[in-house]
Specification:
alpha/beta, seven-stranded parallel beta sheet, two-stranded antiparallel sheet, globular, 9 strands
């Protein structure tokens, strides 16, 4: 892992580059809660944390897939301390129940707000919100609020929220005048809005934590171009284009394991400060080490 000092306008801190899973420090005694941990980047990050000795809680919507992921992780990391937490981010009652389970743990060092859906047909959460905004942002917003006191018990604990480079493509529109998509619905722009909301949430949480003198860090990360199951809900012409491009993507994009590096950096690296945003360092932030 290479380090170089740069001057941030906001922070004036240490820049971390060329980070991979090999740079994760010893995590014995720490507890991580990772949402969407049954597949893709969430699973790979959870496995990496467990390999370094952390206790890992897997937040999963589907109990069957969650149990399968837990068994797979234990097979790969026989020494892992890992448990399943039922969590449906599209149901705020489920979010509250999951938070109750996590609060019963002796400690919580890191919350990784990773779960998400992308470019799916228009659906609503159980509470009536447009699903991409509801799952990607509002569910994690609620979960973080319910767990913040628990996190603040641990010095330098972290809230890591996974955004996307797609946050740049939505023209800054959060659809405040049509939050429930009653007037219009475009799956791509709604996804971009949810990822921008993830970042705005991170920066405002960082501002409030700093104002209170809290040591808990709020940071964000994005995986760049990583080949995962996130595209499983894409439909129509976009799905056709994706199927054509997938072989090319698999040549230049990160794998799910590599796509988890920015998450792992944000969650574990020394020198991380609140308000920072991490992603891959190569190919216009699409691939390579974090």
């Amino acid at each position: 892992m290479a380090l170089r000092t740069i001057c941030w306008p906001k922070l004036g801190t240490l820049m971390i580059t060329q980070f991979t899973a090999a740079d994760i420090p010893d995590l014995n005694g720490r507890t991580f809660f990772v949402t969407g941990a049954n597949t893709g980047i969430g699973f790979e990050a959870a496995r990496a944390f467990a390999e370094r000795g952390a206790r890992v809680l897997l937040g999963c919507r589907d109990p069957g897939r969650g149990r399968a992921a837990m068994e797979r992780l234990r097979a790969q990391v026989p020494s892992a301390s890992v448990d399943l937490v039922d969590l449906d981010l599209g149901d705020l009652a489920s979010v509250r129940a999951a938070a109750d389970v996590v609060r019963s743990e002796p400690r919580l060092d890191v919350l990784v707000n990773n779960a998400g859906i992308m470019w799916n047909p228009k659906t609503l959460t159980k509470d009536g919100f447009e699903s991409q905004f509801g799952v990607n942002h509002l569910g994690h917003f609620a979960l973080t609020g319910l767990l913040l006191d628990k996190l603040r018990e641990i010095p330098r604990s972290r809230v890591v929220t996974i955004s996307s480079a797609g946050h740049r493509f939505g023209n800054g529109d959060l659809f405040w005048d049509d939050l429930h998509a009653e007037k219009t619905y475009n799956p791509a722009t709604r996804y971009f809005a949810s990822k921008l909301a993830n970042l705005l949430f991170t920066y405002e949480l960082d501002r409030r934590l700093r104002a209170q003198g809290a040591s808990t860090l709020a940071v964000a990360a994005h995986p760049g171009g990583a080949v995962t199951e996130l595209d499983r809900y894409i439909y129509g012409p976009a799905k056709v284009v994706l199927n054509v491009l997938r072989p090319l993507m698999e040549r230049w994009a990160n794998t799910a394991e590599q796509g988890a590096w920015p998450t792992e950096l944000a969650a574990t690296a020394e020198g991380v400060e609140g308000g920072q945003y991490f992603g891959p360092g190569a190919w216009n932030e699409t691939s390579g080490p974090a």
